[in-house]
Amino acid sequence: MTQEEPEPVELPITGEIDLHAFAPEDVPSLVEEYLSACRARGILTVRVIHGRGKGVQRAVVHRLLSRLPGIESFRDAAPDSGGWGATVVLLASPVAEEPGS
Fold it and tell me: How far apart are CA 81 and CA 45, in angstroms?
């Protein structure tokens, strides 16, 4: 018996993503793709909701953000916006690429 690939899920690009519904192994690529899509649309402040728990998912997200290009900064959300259960990411403005560069 072969297991079928699940259908891709299209996420609305709103500047906020909640990771609770996703498998932990999918989080790094999901966050990277989501941030890239936000940046391409000019959404430069993104809230990534990873939950509080033991802080494992937060650590994964922060480790990823520390190595991704195009990240200006990131920090825990304000207490009324999730505190350490969410991370606010500031993205660099997308630079228009000149043909041939």
Answer: 13
Q: Across-strand partners of 73?
A: 90
For 5-55, give the DSSP string.
Answer: PPPP-PPP-SSEEEGGGS-GGGHHHHHHHHHHHHHHTT--EEEEE--STTS
pLDDT exceeds cutoff 60 at 101: no
Cα angle, residue 29 at apex, residues 21 and 36 outer, rounded to 5°? 105
**CA-to-CA distance for 73 and 91, rounded, in angstroms?**
7
pLDDT tens per residue across span 51-76: 998 999 999 999 999 999 999 999 99
